[in-house]
Design goal:
The structure is a single chain. The protein has two domains: 108 residues, no CATH class; 75 residues, Nonspecific Lipid-transfer Protein, Chain A (2-Layer Sandwich), CATH 3.30.1050. With 216 residues, it is mainly α. The radius of gyration is 17 Å and the shape is globular. Helix 4 crosses helix 5, helix 7 crosses helix 8 and helix 8 runs parallel beside helix 10. Strands 2-1-3 form a three-stranded mixed sheet. It contains eleven helices and three strands, in the order H-H-H-H-H-H-H-H-H-E-E-E-H-H.
Length: 216
C-alpha cells in the first residue's frame, strides 16, 4: 500500500475539493437540487446540507445534534442534514465556500484530515454522478480517503465486508487485501467500498463479480 499524503497536504485537498464542489453547485437548476443522490433517500440538497456541517460545527454543536437525535448516530446524521437542507440553496453553497478551509473535526474516534477527505470526495460523487456532471477527484487525495476507510470500523467496515478481495488503484499507488483482484480508479474504489453500486461500472478484474455480490 502506498503512503498517503501528510496531514497538511490532505487538508489542502479538502479545501480544494469543497471549492470545486461549490463551483459545480453554483450552476445547478432548482430541479437538479431536488435530484436523488447516491445516498439512499437523500436529494442533492440533503447531501450538500450534510457537507456544510463538519466545517462549521464545534464539538458542542455536534453534541447538541446528538442529543436532539436521542443519541443515535445515524438518526443524527439524517436529521441534521434534512433540517439544514431547508435553507436556500444559495446559502448552503455560500457556507460551503466560506468554510472550505475549515479544519474542524467531529468528536469521533479516528477523525482527521483523511476521514474528512474521504467524506467530502465520496459525497461529492454522490452529487455529481446522478447529475451526470464531471468533477475532478484528485487520486492522491482519494488515496488518503481510502486508507482511512480501510482503517476504520464505523460507519463502514470494508476490511471485514470485503475480506477475500484485493483492491488495486490504477491511478495511484494503493492496494489492500488478498484474493481475486478488483482494479479501478481511486474515485470508483471510494464508491464501492462505501457500498455504492454506482462505482461498479468503473472497476474490473477477476474479483469484480464477488464484489458485486458483497454489496448490500
Amino acid at each position: 500500500m502506498g503512503g498517503a499524503p501528510a496531514g497538511d497536504a490532505v487538508w489542502r485537498e479538502v479545501e480544494a475539493a469543497r471549492l470545486r464542489l461549490a463551483d459545480l453547485l453554483d450552476g445547478l437548476s432548482d430541479e437538479e437540487w431536488e435530484t436523488p443522490s447516491l445516498c439512499d433517500g437523500w436529494r442533492v440538497r440533503d447531501v450538500v446540507a450534510h457537507l456544510t456541517l463538519p466545517p462549521t460545527l464545534t464539538t458542542a454543536g455536534w453534541m447538541k445534534e446528538m442529543l436532539r437525535a436521542g443519541g443515535g448516530f445515524h438518526r443524527m446524521v439524517r436529521d441534521s442534514a434534512v433540517r439544514t437542507a431547508r435553507e436556500p440553496a444559495a446559502e448552503l453553497v455560500a457556507r460551503l465556500r466560506k468554510h472550505a478551509g475549515s479544519r474542524l473535526l467531529p468528536p469521533a474516534p479516528g477523525a482527521g484530515a483523511d476521514t474528512t477527505v474521504m467524506d467530502v470526495l465520496t459525497h461529492t460523487q454522490d452529487i455529481a454522478v446522478p447529475l451526470g456532471r464531471e468533477i475532478e477527484i484528485v487520486p492522491d487525495a482519494a488515496r488518503a480517503g481510502l486508507e482511512s476507510l480501510w482503517r476504520l470500523r464505523f460507519p463502514f467496515n470494508p476490511r471485514k465486508a470485503m475480506r477475500g478481495i484485493r483492491f488495486v488503484a490504477d491511478d495511484s499507488s494503493w492496494d489492500v487485501g488478498d484474493g481475486p483482484v478488483v482494479t479501478g480508479p481511486t474515485a470508483a474504489l471510494l464508491l464501492v467500498l462505501t457500498n455504492r453500486e454506482a462505482g461498479l461500472d468503473r472497476v474490473t478484474g477477476p474479483g469484480a463479480a464477488l464484489l458485486r455480490a458483497r454489496l448490500p
